[in-house]
Amino acid sequence: MDGGAFGAGKAGGAFDPHAFIRQPHTLLRFVSWIFSIVVFGSIVNEGYVNRLEETEEHCIFNRNRNACNYGITVGVLAFLSCLLYLALDAYFPQISSVKDRKKAVLSDIGVSAFWAFLWFVGFCFLTNQWQASKEEDNPLNEGGDAARAAITFSFFSIFTWVGQAFLAYQRFRLGADSALFSQDYMDPSQDSGMPYAPYTNEEDATDAVGTYQQPPPADAFDTETQGYQTQNY
Description:
Layout: H1 17-21, H2 24-46, E1 48-49, E2 58-59, H3 65-91, H4 98-131, H5 144-184, H6 202-210, H7 218-227
Helix pairs in contact: 2-3, 2-5, 3-4, 4-5
């Protein structure tokens, strides 16, 4: 298995907290985690107000309880999702299977894109209900800052989750390219189509050298020539 696939080091290495914190997707998860706390915390603490003559509290967003419930639910679930994927990011380098790493990255892409969509819906919903709120429902303007904070950080959360989806997609592309390379790569030494030099046995080479005879010296021809005498007729 390729231990360095999908943007992580080889499996089995020691956990480095400094390198973990400096990763871009880890930073975005921390930021998204904080934004989710601001959204649901603002609504829970100051998102319900009542008129002077009433004792029952209503949602500050146009007295629409669904708006407050949506903001709280999305904020709490996003908070838990950030914690879950932070734990997955910490454990990710220990995953030795390329298929398991691929599944984790694909789930990161899907979940991040899904939460970006939910935050977009939440921003539009809260903004619409806040604009439709009536002044007589909240004459003292209580919780106005909390409502605006929930809307603002819902808007910011859209971009942090889109950023997480984009970084996860980059990790997926990196892992897909490395996996494709590992499958298509062929060692040149194993390619049967390449020509090879003929194999020569050392013993055969020695025998060939031992049986080789040098040509006779030129003096031998001179001696034979000197021994031959021409006859005159």
